[in-house]
Amino acid sequence: MKTEDLVSLLAAGVPAIDHNLSAKRFSWAMLCGGVGSTVLMAIVYGVRPDIGAVIKTPLFWIKLALPLCLAFAALLATARLSRPGSAVGRAWAALAAPVLTVWIATLVLLWLAPPDARLPLVMGNTWRVCPRNIALLSVPVFITVFWAMRGLAPTRLRLAGAAGGLLAGATAAVAYCFHCPEMGVPFWAVWYLLGMLIPTLAGAALGPRLLKW
């Protein structure tokens, strides 16, 4: 038997590889998880009553930009970490950029503010519940994202889990923006990021167990 015939025989009946499998799984994960987090936010916390007026202000969209940018960057990192041998590359810089931007803006605003106004700018009125609320809203996305990753082939399980957790936290923060009354950049720079950090750490801790294949 010739080599070509042997290869053809071995390859017979092998299903074609779906090169869009990763995109399909993450599309479904983000759609279902994002809807789940939004519905959970509306049921548990409720949409802020003045949302119609607030969404017309530039500050609301600046607020929304922080978790949105982190979610897009985390999605890129998570998708790459779900495939063996894929380099994360510029996704790290994309993750760092919005965080550094909001921290720099916070330092400038606190420097310009009167000394007695600085702590209230950071603490806001809901600092006790903000991180916990974001962590709770991240649960639907956490489940769907880890489902998507588990169906692929991640090899750096702890890092992949952390990226997936951050994706869940950032998506939850997007939904939470439609409830949260806080409109101060220093507040977001501390408590929103802390809320996103909780599912990130959970993903890093659970990644080796949930993503093992």
From TrEMBL:
InterPro entries: NrsF. The keyword Disulfide bond does not apply. It holds the Pfam family NrsF. The chain crosses the membrane at residues 26-47, 59-79, 91-113, 134-153, 159-178, 190-211. Keywords: Membrane, Transmembrane, Transmembrane helix. This is Transmembrane protein. It comes from Paraburkholderia phytofirmans (strain DSM 17436 / LMG 22146 / PsJN) (Burkholderia phytofirmans).
